[in-house]
Amino acid sequence: MKNRIEEIRKERGLRQEELADALEVSRQTISSLENGRYNPSITLAFKIAAYFSMQIEDIFIYEEDAQS
Prior knowledge:
Layout: E1 2-3, H1 5-11, H2 16-23, H3 27-34, H4 42-52, H5 56-59, E2 60-61
Antiparallel strand pairs: 1-2
Helix pairs in contact: 2-3
């Protein structure tokens, strides 16, 4: 799953540490999310969307496996 977290965070002038603190996660979690190495729990996805006042679908891009 791809996401726009880094893009949105930078547009709003936030550092990874600031976003992490606001979401009560580590900076490493934010880094892993932005680099596509980690998919968030549904709870964290909702927290991210709420923090940015956006819909989940506007942040996270689901791509079905090409073999499905």
